Model the fold of this input.
Amino acid sequence: MAPRKKSVKLHRCPTCAMLVKFDDEDFPFCSDRCRKIDLGKWASGVYKISSPILDPEVLEDLGAFSGSREKDYHDD
Ligand SMILES: [Zn+2]
Done:
């Protein structure tokens, strides 16, 4: 018996659940768009951690700094 079963295994795109062939160039995604959407999810999570601009402590620091400068100006 020939082990040549015609079983094309299919996989579903993690982003949109569309069927994707194993030999698809964008596997495991159905398209480059879905790949970017999935990567974007991870990237946005990492971005938050490595983005000092959005750190509330930094913003507070900047506010306190400009506030003290204003006081100095008044004192003078
Ligand atoms: Zn997709």
Remarks:
- The chain has two helices and two strands.
